[in-house]
């Protein structure tokens, strides 16, 4: 890509943010510069809205955000929900019970109510840190499993005390069930959404609402849950620290998140435009 796009879609953790979850001054300057040229800048993240707002001021995010891996489009300024896709009770219940037969000790969290509701199974808090969900584990609920599964979920998080997210995701896929989409983002759990819901699907829907063509989208990401978005965008850029799935889906590889890789690409495009 040699010209500024109409929309920039960027993952946060491992992509735009440094390892301390900060936005560097260089990256903020680049984001402000493209916004000043009329470019939409949209965070596209596994986080919920409150998790985006934690870094919103640093990054200058005040408009549309895609949360929960594309299942929720929300305006950070007004709180307007443009769309929300929910994982049905039947699909999530069938998945969890089948998985427990295969892998005992899996625990679950149901995220609901446009990302504000957090319903954790007993023993989940013992496995969690505040960084995982941007919530204090000491304040997490301790519900029986049937209550966790009693309403549709914006996102269902599954974790195990010893299995890695990649290994747990392999167990989910080995069930060969339908009715949901499962992925992982580098966080210590598997993330389950409604069938067909990915960052790419959510981004396509938001772009349609904004009148932005697929070819005019520049996307940045680093994790397996970014791969579909990087492949869908007119130009997909993976970070140097990216997972192999993201690297394979991208058109370009930039420097790592620690080296302001997003800013490097934006500065190049801005300079080309000025030339």
Automatic annotation (TrEMBL):
Q: What terms describe the molecular function in GO for this protein?
A: magnesium ion binding; phosphatase activity
Superkingdom of the source species: Bacteria
> Listed GO cellular component terms?
cytosol
List the keywords (alphabetical): Hydrolase
Gene3D superfamilies, alphabetized:
3.30.1240.10, HAD superfamily/HAD-like
Against SUPFAM superfamilies, the record matches this protein to: HAD-like (SSF56784)
Indicate what this protein is called per its UniProt record: Cof-like hydrolase
Q: Which organism is it from?
A: Deinococcus proteolyticus (strain ATCC 35074 / DSM 20540 / JCM 6276 / NBRC 101906 / NCIMB 13154 / VKM Ac-1939 / CCM 2703 / MRP)
Q: What is the lineage of its organism?
A: Bacteria, Thermotogati, Deinococcota, Deinococci, Deinococcales
